[in-house]
């Protein structure tokens, strides 16, 4: 059964890779939007992700 689950995951990832490599339909404009708003500022991205992972109470200082 575990091998079947792994095969399902691999199949799903293959589909995502195909859509990313050769986007079509509604995926193309969505990927273009994502790519146009991406940031190369790694420290800022890490800070943003750290802040997003904190719960609302932590951001409000009520932890």
Note down, in words, how this protein is organized.
The protein is mostly helical. The chain has one domain (2-59). Helices cover 75% and strands 0% of the residues.
Q: Could you outline the blueprint of secondary structure elements for this entry?
A:
Elements: H1 2-21, H2 27-37, H3 42-53, H4 56-59
Instruction: Please state the oligomeric state of the protein chains shown.
Output: single chain
Shape: flat
Work out the strand percent: under 5%
**Count of individual helical segments:** 4
Helix-strand sequence? HHHH
Alpha carbon gap, first and last residue: 42 Å
Number of separate domains: 1
Question: Main traits of this protein?
Answer:
flat; mainly alpha; 4 helices; 63 residues
Summarize the structure in short.
The protein is an all-alpha fold and 63 residues long. The chain has four helices and no strands.
